[in-house]
Amino acid sequence: MRYRRLGNSGLKISEISLGSWLTYGNSVEKKQAIRTIDKAYELGINSFDTANVYAHGEAEKIVGEALNKYPRESYVLATKAFWPMGEGPNDRGLSRKHIIEQVNQSLKRLKHDYVDIFYCHRYDPETPLEETLRAIDDLIRQGKILYAGVSEWTAYQIVEGLRVQDRYLLDRLVVNQPIYNMFNRYIEDSVVPTVLENGMGLVVFSPLAQGLLTGKYRKGQAIPEDSRAADPRSNIYLKDNLTEENLEKVEQLMKIAEEVGVSLPQLALAWILHQPGITSALIGASKPEQVEENVKAVEIDLSSEILDRIEEIIG
């Protein structure tokens, strides 16, 4: 495994991170989830990501239980808050009340004293930025979180957040977690330049486009019954990408992967790790074997010729 600094911070995380969205506490049995986390740790992954809303807290319980047997200083644990966790008017968003209550509840589920990174899971237009960022700064002062980040904020929102933090001498945001893959590259226009200019890291989720870049879905073939696309709970995130045009691109990318001597997922992850500003690619894995395959991407060196050919296909 290789490690990169998280922006300008002193924190180093593995180039491959392991997440728990749509898997642990939901579609993956607990023992297998823990075996998968154990395999990731064994292979050198030190960055583990979860959120309060994943399986309504169950993912945090599993991730916490799996990691608690390892030395606390040996891994980086992240969680998030924003999405509804109840029916009440204050059970969502980024108010001081919701953030502090949710961090405390997350720590109880994780059975940890602190998390390394706390993400604002989305931007909250109903709460002043100063309120949100002061609450996070207070939690940093209390030692309950070490670093602050955001997920899926626009470039403008990130700049505004940093401006508020600088004005009031609050701890700065150090990381952004957006979606990024060969079929979703919106961050390249303004988010990546903003993050680089302000010394932040990028931990990107859905690097395999919800399975489209695994080679599981092929042009002219039926959707496998045991696949994510066949599951109504997660198909809403994938169905828009399963177009004839994208499936044709997948066929061409598979040919390049074969030439390079790697699998399609390894090619897709290696491509991300070759892009400017990327700190880590956040994978989801339902079994240890998937982790074993994915981590090999850090060893793949893609030539400029291969990168250009990929660009011709996906650009």
Question: Helix and strand layout, with pairings?
Answer:
Blueprint: E1 3-5, E2 12-14, E3 16-19, H1 30-42, E4 47-49, H2 58-67, E5 76-81, H3 96-110, E6 115-120, H4 129-141, E7 145-150, H5 155-167, E8 173-176, H6 191-197, E9 201-205, H7 244-260, H8 264-273, E10 278-284, H9 288-295, H10 304-314
Parallel strand pairs: 3-10, 4-5, 5-6, 6-7, 7-8, 8-9, 9-10
Antiparallel strand pairs: 1-2
Helix pairs in contact: 1-2, 1-9, 4-5, 7-10
Compact description:
By secondary structure, the chain is of the alpha/beta class. Helix content is 37%, strand content 15%.
Structure description:
With 315 residues, the chain is α/β, with parallel strands linked by helices. It is built from 10 helices and 10 strands. It has helices at 30-42, 58-67, 96-110, 129-141, 155-167, 191-197, 244-260, 264-273, 288-295, 304-314; strands at residues 3-5, 12-14, 16-19, 47-49, 76-81, 115-120, 145-150, 173-176, 201-205, 278-284. The strands form 2 sheets. Strands 3-10-9-8-7-6-5-4 form an 8-stranded parallel β-sheet, covered by helices on one side. Strands 1-2 form a two-stranded antiparallel ribbon. α1 runs parallel beside α9 (288-295). It is globular.
User: Based on helices, strands and strand pairing, what is the structural class?
Assistant: alpha/beta
User: Tally of extended strands?
Assistant: 10
Question: Approximately what portion of the residues adopt beta-strand conformation?
Answer: 5-15%
- Give the ordered list of helices and strands: EEEHEHEHEHEHEHEHHEHH
Strand order of the largest sheet: 3-10-9-8-7-6-5-4
Helix count equals: 10
Largest sheet: 8 strands, parallel
**What coarse outline follows from CA principal-axis ratios?**
globular
- Runs in which pLDDT lies below 50 for 5 or more consecutive residues are none
Helix content, binned percent: 25-40%
Tell me, rounded to a whole number, the average pLDDT. Answer: 93
Query: What would you report as the Rg, rounded to the nearest angstrom?
Result: 19 Å
Distance between the termini: 29 Å
